[in-house]
Design goal:
The chain is of the alpha+beta class. 49% of the residues lie in helices and 18% in strands. A hairpin with a 6-residue loop joins strand 2 and strand 3. The longest helix is centred in the N-terminal third of the chain and has 32 residues. The chain is elongated, with a radius of gyration of 31 Å.
């Protein structure tokens, strides 16, 4: 077989392409519901696999988080620049832990304003990999304290609707 024969076969094959394309189009239109069903199933499987992979990858990061409390002094009155600097540090802490392999769910920073039987405190939580960035205090008139043990997970408030205690201490249903 010579080069000319190969070129002639390619040219004759190219001449058949419009007919083959027409046959493929008519088959797809006749079997459109099969094609759509298969495409939907494939898209759902991909979505489930990607979601499961993200959950598995973020599980270890969510389980290994650190928290710091920022305790203000009596004369605490931050300027706008101090607040913006603190917000920038939190954004930098999240960027320092964000990688392409980790989903954003595992690298999220959490800022809580809390008051448990005392003055208002600010709690900053993030992944353990961001500990060094979180330790850099953003406010000059505040004490930074690491939260450990049972303090790291604050209790959720218990809200009871329709039940109140009267002066005798007995529970009665609200009318």
């Amino acid at each position: 077989m010579t080069t000319n024969d190969v070129i002639d076969e390619i040219i004759s094959g190219v001449g058949d392409l419009p007919e083959l394309a027409q046959q493929a189009q008519s088959w797809a239109m006749n079997n459109l519901w099969w094609v759509a069903t298969c495409a939907l199933v494939i898209a759902l499987v991909i979505a489930i696999v990607v979601g499961s992979a993200q959950r598995l990858m973020s599980r270890s990061t969510l389980g290994n988080r650190t928290a710091f409390e920022v305790l203000p002094t009596n004369g605490f009155d931050p300027a706008l620049e101090d607040v913006l600097r603190f917000a920038k540090q939190i954004a930098r802490a999240q960027r320092s832990t964000s990688r392409w392999a980790l989903p954003a769910r595992g690298t999220a920073m959490r800022v809580r304003l809390m008051s448990v039987g005392g003055p208002l405190t600010l709690r900053v939580e993030g992944p353990a990999r961001a500990t060094t960035v979180l330790r850099h205090q953003g406010y000059a008139q505040c004490e930074l304290r690491a939260v450990t043990g049972q303090e790291s997970k604050p209790e959720r408030p218990k809200i009871r609707l329709g039940v109140h205690n009267d002066s005798t201490g007995a529970s009665t249903a609200a009318a």
